[in-house]
């Protein structure tokens, strides 16, 4: 199945003869068979015809809307996949503190391990000593085993994350160096790229979660927040470094993007991607999602990262239906 990203301002999306058609301002068109499309993501001033929206609802094609600089607005989604019994079970698990704690430990342990792998990968070409920082992060995931509350788990995660981003800022090209995580708004190019990437992956998970009959707002680890899909946030944690951080590091250190391809706005603070850079970044992310790997511990064959996202949600369903968090195996890279 394919994903359609449209960021060209003034473009329009319609449907003709069982094909989705994108018409650009310069007269060029792009055509995709309706049966192959899973998601449409639009950025900024892009028009979609009513006929196209109706076809998306009929076929269960999610349509996601972002601003020109990547702020998420919302989505159009069919309700054909709702599974009431599964959502009742999901809601019951939200009251099972033992399950929630054990599940959170598994997710955050894997997240920190993946962050360490990313640091080790990118230090190879840099004269930076990261061993002390790695030991600090290892101490955090070791402490997780003894945590008695989710708040403690998240506290260890937060400490590891601060160490991780502090070191990460020294492992990229000097002009892109940064001193830690900044968001809403991102204050430097690196944070701008990962913030957008996190938004994209969270909303991809949102659609896959709903597609399997779950409620994206019934989380396990993160505290409930109004209008925030906490389950998508939970399931995203193991993927942040694996999919987004690694892609951004690859682009920056591979000189695929320059600092001149970002802009700031006078009316509000923040650093954002120019339109051509945005298109380049989305293309790179899409390539990453399609990359095959053997990181899932419960299968002995290669799957794309996008397939792995879907399979992990299946594992989560298995875990809540059996009320056994050990049925869930977070991805751990090598």
From TrEMBL:
Pfam families, A to Z: Cas_Cas1
Cofactor(s) it depends on: Mg(2+); Mn(2+)
E.C. code: 3.1.-.-
One GO term (biological process): defense response to virus
GO molecular function, one term: DNA binding
Keywords of this entry: Antiviral defense, DNA-binding, Endonuclease, Hydrolase, Magnesium, Manganese, Metal-binding, Nuclease
Binding positions for Mn(2+) per the UniProt entry: 157, 222, 237
UniProt entry tagged with the keyword Transmembrane helix: no
InterPro entries, sorted: Cas1 (IPR050646), CRISPR-assoc_Cas1 (IPR002729), CRISPR-assoc_Cas1_C (IPR042206), CRISPR-assoc_Cas1_N (IPR042211)
Task performed by this protein: CRISPR (clustered regularly interspaced short palindromic repeat), is an adaptive immune system that provides protection against mobile genetic elements (viruses, transposable elements and conjugative plasmids). CRISPR clusters contain spacers, sequences complementary to antecedent mobile elements, and target invading nucleic acids. CRISPR clusters are transcribed and processed into CRISPR RNA (crRNA). Acts as a dsDNA endonuclease. Involved in the integration of spacer DNA into the CRISPR cassette.
Family classification: Belongs to the CRISPR-associated endonuclease Cas1 family.
Quaternary data: Homodimer, forms a heterotetramer with a Cas2 homodimer.
HAMAP family in alphabetical order: Cas1 (MF_01470)
PANTHER family (UniProt xref): CRISPR-ASSOCIATED ENDONUCLEASE CAS1 1
Name recorded for this polypeptide: CRISPR-associated endonuclease Cas1
Gene that produces this protein: cas1
